[in-house]
Specification:
With 341 residues, this protein is an all-alpha fold. The chain has helices at 7-47, 49-54, 56-60, 77-108, 111-125, 129-151, 166-190, 194-202, 207-218, 220-236, 239-244, 261-268, 275-340, and strands at residues 65-66, 73-74. The protein has 13 helices and two strands; from the N terminus they run αααββαααααααααα. Strands 1-2 form a two-stranded antiparallel sheet. The protein is globular and about 70 Å long. The N and C termini lie far apart (83 Å).
Length: 341
């Protein structure tokens, strides 16, 4: 026999499922927070001892990196500057190209062309970083070496790098962040309500004006998220940069062989010991702090802009209501005068 349906019994089972789901979600969130806290605590425990042994000033503001010398020196200022400069230039190159490509795919590309370009971008995201490094060695470095020999032809002071320099690293990083920026920016643009576009076109705006003055501002939160993830990818990359940058500690000039924070850890952790190993953990702590500061600043910037826009919308609405109220009062007063007349 079929069992009769009971609303009470269905409500109880629904409540049980919701409570179980709430417990599962709470546990997952707890472990996520615990993982972040554990990583932070681990980096602090292992990265701070060298700061007290060597000195904060000698590590962060020293310019000489000779960890295996008879009198070792652990200055990482040039390494920090290289990471800042390399990341900034790669973002400056990769983000505009990525955002414009996302605009093309979301708003301008024919369906057949978009069906070819989008899978290619997704495939680019799945390529291992070491492949980018190998392609950089085989294609990019020889080209950079030709440029370098042409620029410094006849120079007796320049130390030739064979094309493994800061420019090569920046180009590789810019290419590597493209898939992240393109995919997330395109999703953000497609998530903008179609009414925005229709209203803009109906008011007489051109398609280009609609894209750059309506669609992109409406999708800016997703685009900023893409930039944040692109920054994280650029800062945290190690293998490809190790292959194309030359991995030498120098001031970050375009044709200098340079070393990033990540490559400093990768290239020396295998044989480091004692104080040298502790300083490498300090470099990891600096890198971790660097990423956290960038993410925090960009998040606060995004929230402040959203808050300002909400305040402007609230003011405009209140002004509209006040104008409407004043107009109604004038109409009522006029009607009263006409009635008395």
């Amino acid at each position: 026999m079929k069992m009769a349906f009971s609303i009470v019994r269905g409500r109880h089972s629904k409540n049980a499922v919701e409570k179980a789901a709430q417990i599962i979600f709470t546990v997952c969130a707890f472990f996520a927070v615990l993982a972040v806290f554990s990583i932070t605590l681990y980096m602090l425990i292992n990265g701070t001892p060298a700061l007290f042994k060597v000195g904060l000033k000698d590590i962060l503001f020293g310019t000489v990196w000779k960890p295996t010398a008879k009198e070792p020196s652990f200055g990482i200022l040039y390494i920090i500057l290289t990471s800042i400069v390399g990341t900034a230039f790669s973002i400056a190159i990769g983000v505009p190209i990525g955002v414009l490509t996302a605009v093309f795919l979301a708003e301008a590309a024919p369906k057949k062309l978009a069906a070819v370009v989008k899978p290619a971008v997704e495939l680019l995201a799945g390529v291992p970083s070491v492949i980018y490094g190998l392609l950089g060695i085989m294609i990019l470095n020889p080209l950079m070496y030709r440029v370098e020999t042409a620029v410094f032809k006849g120079s007796e002071t320049h130390q030739f790098t064979g094309g493994a320099n800061l420019i090569s690293a920046v180009i590789v990083l810019a290419i590597m962040i493209l898939p992240t920026v393109i995919n997330i920016s395109e999703s953000a643009l497609r998530a903008v309500p179609s009414q925005y576009k229709s209203a803009s076109l109906a008011l007489g705006a051109s398609k280009i004006q609609t894209i750059f003055r309506v669609m992109l501002p409406a999708a800016k939160s997703g685009i900023i998220t893409a930039v944040v993830l692109g920054v994280g990818r650029a800062i945290g990359e190690a293998m490809a940069i190790t292959l194309v940058s030359g991995s030498s500690v120098n001031f970050p000039l375009p044709f200098h062989s340079v070393r990033f924070l990540t490559t400093a850890i990768v290239s020396e952790m295998g044989y480091a010991s004692g104080l040298h190993r502790e300083v490498l953990f300090t470099i990891g702590l600096v890198l971790f702090t660097f990423i956290m500061l960038i993410n925090t600043c960009l998040t606060k910037l995004l929230k402040s802009k959203d808050t300002q826009e909400k305040v402007k919308e609230t003011r405009s609405r209140s002004e509209g209501k006040s104008c409407g109220t004043a107009g109604e009062k004038k109409n009522r007063a006029g009607a009263a005068v006409q009635g008395e007349a």
